[in-house]
Amino acid sequence: MSKSRKNPDCIAFGANVRRERMARGITQERLAELVDLNIRTVQKIEAGEINILLTTVVRFFRVLNCPWGRLMPVKDRAGSHSP
Predict the structure, then answer these.
(1) Ramachandran angles phi, psi of 80, nearest 5°
(2) Is residue 26 part of a domain?
(3) Domain that holds residue 14
(4) What is d(CA 68, CA 62) in angstroms, rounded to the nearest whole number?
(5) Cα→Cα distances 13→9, 61, Å
(6) CA distance 14 to 23
(7) Region for 61 from its dihedrals, namely left if φ exceeds 0, alpha if ψ lies in -120 to 50, beta otherwise
(8) Distance CA 18, CA 13 (A)
(9) What's the total number of domains in the chain?
(10) What is the CATH number of the domain that holds 48?
(11) DSSP calls for the chain
């Protein structure tokens, strides 16, 4: 993925992961351990810099224990993302 143009869905997912992580008082380092990823990868995910596999998305759901809609970006009819 080009660094000059991030995917809006990746940005929204990353922001949602960050919100849920912080709401639970989990550090990026601890989240990385729990989802079995490198901390830099978690940082890139939260920044919306990389597109991840579905299996990785599932690990975030299991660790953060939140409903699907809290992490997955939802587009309204105008095409913008809502939390």
Answers:
(1) -95, 155
(2) yes
(3) 8-71
(4) 10
(5) 6, 11
(6) 14
(7) alpha
(8) 9
(9) 1
(10) 1.10.260.40
(11) --TTS--HHHHHHHHHHHHHHHHTT--HHHHHHHHT--HHHHHHHHTT-----HHHHHHHHHHHT--HHHHS-EE-TTS-EE-
Residue whose structure tokens are 């143009």: 5
Q: Kindly state the tokens that stand for 12.
A: 């929204």
* Mean pLDDT for the stretch of residues 25-39: 98
Instruction: Say if 77 falls within a structural domain.
Output: no
Residue type for position 79: G
Structure tokens given for 28: 């990026």
Residue the block writes with tokens 């940005």:
11
Report the sign of the C-alpha dihedral through residues 71, 46, 21, 37, in that order.
positive
What pLDDT score was predicted for residue 77?
54
Record the tokens describing residue 15, joined without a space. 């922001």
46-73: pLDDT as tens digits: 999 999 999 999 999 999 999 888 999 7
